[in-house]
Design goal:
about 25% strand, globular, 7 helices, about 230 residues, alpha/beta
């Protein structure tokens, strides 16, 4: 699968532009913002390729994965935003309080203005559901709808309560957010983290996904196989 990878935001999040058709895509974890001096970089990339984002999917709600929502919503005012309910309070009206608590824990409160009053979620990721089921009323092409039907949501709590991975069995592709990294996994010491749950989630991924699946995490090295981890 020809995923486009952009590094965005203050912690160099792996933002994925996932093709659905020649002109349609969905965006995973956009984090560009004025703080990191890359505000609008995702939108600029989309427009340079003449592709339209049909949705934004968030693997979880941490500040470094969501700050790009402002630019995307400004450029595409009606774009759907999907996140698991376990992390939904990190968006919308409660975002300043929820993001502020995590940023305070990390000693990074200067970033709070860039994740306050975030756009709210419009759709909620559910375990075992495909993105086609989630976005069933989107006005997309038949090819895009078929592509969306190949992406399955895996709820993988541990890094946060609402952490999710996106699995495409046909393409042997897993977008793992901050749940799984190359020979490592996401931290569990922040608010909502749970060491026991993340190990359960890692076991779930190992047992459910094909070993030759290529993994695209939320940071750092991408494209390694599950077999290299488990």
């Amino acid at each position: 699968m020809n995923l486009h990878l952009l590094h965005t935001g203050p912690l160099a999040v792996n933002t994925y532009i996932v093709p659905l058709s020649e002109t349609e895509t969905f965006v995973v974890d956009a984090a560009d913002c004025a703080f990191s001096r890359d505000e609008g970089s995702v939108v600029s990339f989309l427009k340079s390729k003449n592709i339209t984002p049909v949705a934004v999917v968030l693997t979880h709600g941490h500040f470094d994965h969501v700050s790009g929502l402002f630019s995307l919503v400004k450029a595409f005012p009606h774009i759907p935003i999907a996140i698991h309910t376990g992390d939904s309070a990190m968006l919308g009206e409660q975002s300043e309080d929820m993001q502020g608590a995590a940023l305070s824990q990390m000693g990074f409160t200067q970033f709070l203005p860039f994740v306050s009053d975030l756009p709210p979620a419009t759709h909620f990721l559910e375990e075992g559901k495909t993105l086609a089921e989630l976005f069933k009323n989107l006005p997309v092409s038949e090819k895009a709808q078929k592509s969306l039907s190949q992406w399955e949501v895996l709820h993988t709590p541990g890094h946060t309560e609402g952490s999710c991975c996106l699995y495409n069995k046909a393409e042997r592709t897993l977008i793992s957010g901050d749940t799984l990294f190359y020979q490592s996994w996401g931290r569990t010491d922040l608010i909502g983290g749970n060491e026991r749950k993340i190990h359960q989630s890692l076991r779930k991924i190992s047992e459910y996904c094909e070993k030759d699946t290529r993994v695209y995490p939320g940071h750092d090295y991408t494209g390694f196989t599950l077999a290299e981890n488990f």
